[in-house]
Amino acid sequence: MAKLYAIADLHLGHPLNATEWAKLPAYPQGSGLILAGDVGETTAHLTTAFTKAKACFTHVFWVPGNHELYTMPSASSSPDPADALQGEAKYHAFVSLAREHGVLTPEDPWMLWPPSPHPSSSSPSSSSPSSSSFPFPSPSSPSFSSLPPPSSAPPQPQSPSQPEPEKVIIALIFTLYDYSFRPPHIPLPRALSWAAEHDIEATDEHLLSPHPYASREAWCAALVTQFTRKFTATSLSHPHVPYVIVNHWPLREDLVYIPRIPRFSLWCGTKETEEWHRGGVFGEAYGGAKVVVTGHLHVRRTDWIEGCRFEECSLGYPRQWEGARERGLGVEGVVREIWPGPVEEEGGGRGGEERGTVWRRFG
Asked: Which residues pair with 337 in a beta bridge?
């Protein structure tokens, strides 16, 4: 069975991270890799990430984080015009860049995993938007999912050693944040000053433009509406099929654990996504999530909540994975298997039981 892996927060602007990323080995034919945001800030960073990922994996998926949306002070002297763009325009420029490399984005039709074998797939580096990376409609298709219709053919018998793999839909989403991860007694107009009381202010306030939206929370609201519609449409065309949801920001406030800077929670998501893992939330046909993949926090962990496995897959800044390197682990030691996932491990397993949290400090 083809396996699906994930990593987030590569931060390739840090030379050590870029050097270690270049050492990533090739994975078996048919494998997939999710890049769950904060690859870097520039066209060069994303090109480095996509090129290496496509050399090592057959299928590659990307969602943006806040760092991809930054317009850096040095952007005016960049050789890549996209680096000087702001807000939504920069996001769409990076969507186009991903497509040039055969990488799926939140703007593309969602993939059913594992994908069906494709005759033009020959090696991890040979996939393109016209071959096995896009077994469904091309990137020029509308944003709504156009997964293939459920097969009406009778199921083929499987030998005991080759069970029929469960299909999941890989839902790539982009939600941003709306400052709602805050105590109920703190009104929105006071949220930034509340964080500033503890000397906390995200770099986003200076480098992440919401243009053409009036504010980041307005952009977030538009994105929530966009992906609510996409989940609803996909559920109607593929009823009761489960999902692997991929977003850079956590879907739930209770998964934001950053004890040194707790008020940074303002920039960590939106309460509008709190129930998106639950079956039925987008209509009776919505199958719910088996796994939710995120990054952003730089706190690697696995949680089981209501039968869903939540995976925070950050690499982080060099100091934040130093312990893994001291144990001889490279980036591949932090890459997380997402589907089907580990059969058994301390604290949890594949079945999605309520088993609490597994902290993954060393990968």
From this structure: 5
Task: Classify residue 11 as left (phi > 0), alpha (psi -120 to 50) or beta.
Answer: left
- The Cα–Cα gap between 335 and 6 comes to 6
Supply the pLDDT for residue 161: 54
Helix (H, G, I), strand (E, B) or coil at 62: strand
105 vs 1, more confident? 105
Instruction: Render pLDDT for 144-183 as a digit per residue (tens, 0 to 9).
Output: 444 655 544 444 444 455 566 689 999 999 999 999 999 9
Q: How far apart are CA 41 and CA 84, in angstroms?
A: 11
Averaged pLDDT, 250-263 = 97
Query: Torsions phi, psi of 134, nearest 5?
Result: -130, 75
| Contact call for residues 255 and 349 (beta carbons, < 8 A) | no
Place of tokens 């290496």: 52
pTM for the model stands at 0.88
Distances (CA, A) of 88 to 9, 139, 208, 231: 20, 18, 10, 21
Integer Cα distance of 329 and 24 in angstroms: 11
In sequence order, what DSSP letters do the residues of 219-268 get, joined into one string? HHHHHHHHHHHHHHHHHHHSTT--EEEE-SS-S-GGG---TTSGGGGGGS
Query: What is the separation of C-alpha 343 from the centre of its chain, rounded to a whole number of angstroms?
Result: 22
For 246, list phi and psi in degrees, rounded to 5: -125, 120
In degrees, rounded to 5, the angle at the alpha carbon of residue 90 between the alpha carbons of residues 84 and 92 is 150
pLDDT classification of 243: cutoffs 50, 70, 90: very high
pLDDT tens readout for residues 181-204: 999 999 999 999 999 999 999 999
Pairing relation of β-strands 243-246 and 111-113? Answer: unpaired
Which are the contacts of 118, defined by CB distance < 8 A and separation ≥ 6? Answer: 131, 132, 135
- The half-sphere exposure of 313 on its side-chain side, counting CA atoms within 13 A, is 31
Residue 177 · residue 265 · CB < 8 Å:
no
| Tokens (6 digits) for 75 | 């952007």
DSSP run (H or E) holding 218: helix 216-237
